[in-house]
Amino acid sequence: MTNANFQDQRVLRAIELVWREAALLDAKDYPTWEELFTDDGIYVVPIDPDTTDYATSLNMIYDDKRMRHMRVERMIQGYAPSAVAAARTARTVSSFVVKEVSDTEVTLRSAQILSAYKRNEFQTIGAELTHTIALGDTPESDQIKEKVARLINSEFAVNAAGFLI
């Protein structure tokens, strides 16, 4: 990768969408977050750190549009343990690497550190993120086609997380 990738407006738009997604999740604006995805978009948190076949692999999360909607409903209803006294979170997303760029899509890899605070306890989660961004006619119409969050400790016991990664 060269620095020229970071001068490409398509890449900058994709990075801005990833940062907007992180801000929405920290603000617990789950309905707006849900709208960031394309109709056929998926959100995956795989257990196997090397898998690319998410449909046939064991995953912590494998959400299509219907499952994302159900997850968001649980998060905002207040009836699920994950929604009651939800953790306060702060995400830092950085170390962007441009994987692919075309006129219609940008695929980025990045590192995320998520700090969460709930019931007087802090939790830190590290993840490698891969986002495929479908570019629209305007930056406001860009959407997430695929988000894969590979937890750095995915093969070991992972504490329950009452938030989206």
TrEMBL record:
This is Aromatic-ring-hydroxylating dioxygenase subunit beta. Coiled coil: none annotated. InterPro entries: NTF2-like_dom_sf, Rng_hydr_dOase-bsu. GO terms for molecular function: dioxygenase activity. Belongs to the bacterial ring-hydroxylating dioxygenase beta subunit family. It comes from the Bacteria. Pfam families: Ring_hydroxyl_B. Signal peptide: none annotated. One of its GO terms (biological process) is 3-phenylpropionate catabolic process. Keywords: Dioxygenase, Oxidoreductase.
